[in-house]
Automatic annotation (TrEMBL):
UniProt xrefs under Pfam families: Usp
Upper taxonomic lineage: Bacteria, Pseudomonadati, Pseudomonadota, Gammaproteobacteria, Oceanospirillales
Family listed: Belongs to the universal stress protein A family.
Top-level lineage group: Bacteria
Listed SUPFAM superfamilies: Adenine nucleotide alpha hydrolases-like
The protein's name in its UniProt record: Nucleotide-binding universal stress protein, UspA family
Residues of the UspA domain: 1-142
CDD domains in the record: USP-like
InterPro entries in UniProt: Rossmann-like_a/b/a_fold, Universal_stress_UspA, UspA
Length: 143
């Protein structure tokens, strides 16, 4: 039914995406869909990142994150499933929405944290922004 399925992965909490990956794998195995996994890290233009890391160290860190995403994928993917893996820098919600548009993703499956109203106001919700701004179906899994 869905040709391209995206599961955003937060490598700080990779187990949080476990249920999303199980549903995505079902879609991949039953319908031959493409699976995309991506993670988003703060970019070097982020003042916090630039204040504490040199550009060289930041590039090294991004490469390490890409390796961790690949290791995670090898750990959780069944034999014969080869997802497209991507690491991007920037705002998570904006980056995910841009990826959806550029790769013509049909379905996003992602976990949604249950946060207090204050946390939601202060931190925002990546999953809510993705669901609101995406031009495809978004399945949010509540914890």
């Amino acid at each position: 039914m869905f040709k391209k399925v995206l599961v955003p992965i937060d490598l700080n909490e990779p187990d949080f995406a476990e249920q999303a990956l199980l549903l995505a794998l079902r879609e991949v195995q039953e319908n031959g869909s493409e699976l995309h996994m991506l993670t988003v890290v703060p970019g070097f233009t982020n003042s916090f990142v630039a204040a504490y890391f040199s550009e060289k160290d930041h590039i090294k860190a991004v490469k390490e994150i890409a390796r961790k995403l690949q290791d995670y994928s090898h750990k959780v993917m069944p034999e014969g499933v080869h997802p497209t893996l991507r690491v991007y820098e920037g705002s998570p919600a904006e980056t995910i929405v841009n990826y959806i548009a550029s790769k013509e993703i049909n379905l996003v499956i992602m976990p949604a944290h249950h946060r207090s109203k204050i946390d939601e106001f202060l931190l925002g919700s990546v999953s809510a922004r993705v669901a609101e701004r995406s031009k495809c179906s978004v399945l949010l899994l509540k914890d």
